[in-house]
């Protein structure tokens, strides 16, 4: 135990001993005062320290954050058993050993059952408070840890996203300069036209590369300009067909995705006047598709793979929708998911966490409600017992609210800790997870 807790128990022992000595002790002698202190200290340290050590032990073995339901069930069972044993021990020492007002046979004959029950309720109150306090402390620690982790995830994802976007500048410039270099030898006039068009396109690259999403309309306009640039070089060897639905124009895609895919089509396929390369850009369900007839050229050196992998990674950071790739003997198709609303990368990462936080907040309220019910039960029922025994000891009625409310507390605990609707939800999730793995 911590030193602070030991000091607190000492003060509690002294305060309770003074109260019982001056209020309930007839003979106010030094001997009786010392006996009162000894009895108060025994109750304080056995019940207080016992419940505290039990709570610390459970915190180490079964933390609230790792197994809330399991911990709650084990806590309820263990505190009931532990407190019954500790109360019977303390009352036995008090009445049989210290005060010697009863024999062992009288104590266990049932004469002190009411006193034992009252003391057990007080002990349960102490234990419920300690466990509730431990739960709230664990919740605060877990919440702070999760906040720090989510901030780190968001920062890491932002850094990764920026790194991916920064690949676009040198990638586009390098490939464009390669095209320009070949045009200078083949057709100097076309090279001049290509240079003018390239400056316009590169301006768009600089403007859009820092954005996380752009409208399909903007991306299509840029793609058409880029296609004109390609037509400047390849003339009739390359054909383009745009058939995108108007309702998709206001949706979003990652910037420069079409440019990278168009570039890949040219890079990995040969194109001649007799066998032109046909590239189609069209809508299909909730995707923007880029398809070309397959005319694979032999690669002198291995491709860097920046284009397609860059798009896949950027989409994975922004949405759960996947980029699909289809390949057959005749065609190669890439499906880009279109996003119906604009978001940013931090919101995309934290969106699910907000929902998780709301569920966790609701869960905490339910658990706090249960502990409030339990603590109220532990406070009020003993007072009802005292009132019953003081006013009408021959007419025992306290067991009616004790049993009725007790059943309600048990039912409340069962509904909160994974029995009932939560059990059904848990089973549904397990079934869905199994189906997804198939």
From TrEMBL:
<feature type="transmembrane region" description="Helical">
    <location>
        <begin position="35"/>
        <end position="54"/>
    </location>
</feature>
<keyword id="KW-1133">Transmembrane helix</keyword>
<keyword id="KW-0472">Membrane</keyword>
<dbReference type="InterPro" id="IPR050640">
    <property type="entry name" value="Bact_2-comp_sensor_kinase"/>
</dbReference>
<dbReference type="InterPro" id="IPR025698">
    <property type="entry name" value="2TM_dom"/>
</dbReference>
<feature type="transmembrane region" description="Helical">
    <location>
        <begin position="370"/>
        <end position="390"/>
    </location>
</feature>
<feature type="domain" description="2TM">
    <location>
        <begin position="358"/>
        <end position="432"/>
    </location>
</feature>
<feature type="transmembrane region" description="Helical">
    <location>
        <begin position="74"/>
        <end position="94"/>
    </location>
</feature>
<keyword id="KW-0812">Transmembrane</keyword>
<dbReference type="Pfam" id="PF13239">
    <property type="entry name" value="2TM"/>
</dbReference>
<keyword id="KW-0418">Kinase</keyword>
<feature type="transmembrane region" description="Helical">
    <location>
        <begin position="396"/>
        <end position="419"/>
    </location>
</feature>
<dbReference type="InterPro" id="IPR010559">
    <property type="entry name" value="Sig_transdc_His_kin_internal"/>
</dbReference>
<feature type="domain" description="Signal transduction histidine kinase internal region">
    <location>
        <begin position="159"/>
        <end position="237"/>
    </location>
</feature>
<dbReference type="GO" id="GO:0000155">
    <property type="term" value="F:phosphorelay sensor kinase activity"/>
</dbReference>
<keyword id="KW-0808">Transferase</keyword>
<dbReference type="GO" id="GO:0016020">
    <property type="term" value="C:membrane"/>
</dbReference>
<dbReference type="InterPro" id="IPR036259">
    <property type="entry name" value="MFS_trans_sf"/>
</dbReference>
<dbReference type="Pfam" id="PF06580">
    <property type="entry name" value="His_kinase"/>
</dbReference>
<protein>
    <submittedName>
        <fullName>Histidine kinase</fullName>
    </submittedName>
</protein>
<feature type="transmembrane region" description="Helical">
    <location>
        <begin position="114"/>
        <end position="132"/>
    </location>
</feature>
